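Annex B, item 7. Sequence and structure tokens for protein A, then protein B.
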Amino acid sequence: MPADDLDKTDRAILAALQNDGRMSNARLAETVGLSETPCARRLKRLENDGYIDQYRAMLSRTALGLGVVAFVHVRFAVHDRATATRFEREVQAIPRILSCHNVSGSADYVLQIVARDLDDYGAFMRDELRCLPGVTSVESALSLREVKPYGGLPLS
């Protein structure tokens, strides 16, 4: 189903679940102004149609002792499919790399990385990131503070 086929109620269900993925069907139905059975049917359809990928908890970086967030531009000297495939496969296996985007512009990839502190981040750069296939240069931008955390996708 194309996104244009989502009605106001479908969008309200998706918005409510982005704010609280553990919301019960009863509370969700009340929030969007439906009775429980039609709400459950709509939710099942939204899941089956792929609008909801998964449910997960948002963990606190601070509570977990991950005080450093870095956005890293990675550059390759040689651009071949095999190297990119190996790089992407290895990045997938590193938990502290929260996201990886293949981008246009001066960098080949932009990564979001977390670390306990600057020493931990430096060791990760030296011992892991710079050793990945294809990497010839990296440029880090350290987050000083998060102004707007990930709050979900726009649904308007």
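Protein B:
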Amino acid sequence: MLHAEVAILGAGAAGLSLAHRLSHPAPLGRRVTAVLLDAPPGPLRPPRRTWCFWEAGDGPYDDAVTAAWRRLRVHDPTGRPTEDDIAPLRYKMLRSDDFACHVDHALAQSDDVRRLEAAVETVRGDADGAEILARTDDGRPVTVHARWVFDSRPLARLPAARTTLLQHFHGWFVRTDRPAFDPGTAMLMDFRVPQPPQGLAFGYLLPTDRHRALVEYTEFSHAVLPRRAYDEALRRYTDDTLRLGGFEVTETETGVIPMTDARFARRAAPSVFRIGAAGGATRPSTGYTFSAVQRQTRAVAEALHADRHPLPPPAHSARSRAMDAVMLRALDSGRVDGAAFFARLFAQVPMRRLLRFLDGETRLHEDLSVGIRTPVLPMLRSAAELPWLPRTPRHGP
């Protein structure tokens, strides 16, 4: 049996971030032993993915960042562009393989945190600690005992909610024959794509140089599409809207992110906590998760190093969650046109303020200044009916 003060389950963004922070104790903080359990290659291991976030100046993971942008652009459905400089913020692109290598390098130099490749089968927790039963790729059983467990694995089922939409996307990493991209500007939302009967759709473009970019097609709706539908939408976007000419697809990525006003439990047992998307880190209004993961794991690591109780804090404030619930209800009910809604916000609110708003860093008067740029009557009607709507479980994926 292995013993450690902390066991971290899952090596996605949250698990890797917490392991990285525990491998670097503060000068006056006590050392914490930890085991990071990552599933062997296969269906239980998270697929490769790209995380994007914004922060001011240099950050702890800049060595692993693929690209960063100070200028962002949004196109409304008519094609009218809105472009802004978000300095001192920068919009950063971090690929999961690069992040894992960055964390592995830190763990290799740490005597406190070790990584173990094993699939977790059961977790039994009580007030005194938890026992994790896992199995290696060759079938060997492994038992880990820890005082605290932080579980970042995806939930088997979403909690009951009043509104749940899915943000689902498919992306191509492309290399063009001609210089087709401006590497200084990222396309955050491009609503020139055809809009579905319900929900909204947009293109997303992150150029890494004049010839290379990640191009994605994204929808907010209730159900994912067949794979061929994403490829057809991307082909129309790259050919008819972006007019890229000849290009090669070098890699692809696919994802589904729940956008929900569900209440995520941060404690699964007296000594077992949930972090990351499983602990409510995904922002319901946008699907962004990485920045909230950093806030959560920073607070947990600081508590552990200070020998305090390490309950993860809420990833988003109550005010942010309430505003997101109203927006989701307004979109789901069809009271607001999603493409026009987001395009109007980016056109009327400085992008730096809007990004701070989406990160929950704005004050009440700034939130109100954003709110009055939305369709006020539909939003008020959605807010008024929310307390009367039942929370129901979502069936299916």
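Comment on protein B: The chain has three domains: 2-62+96-158+261-305, 164-259, 318-388.
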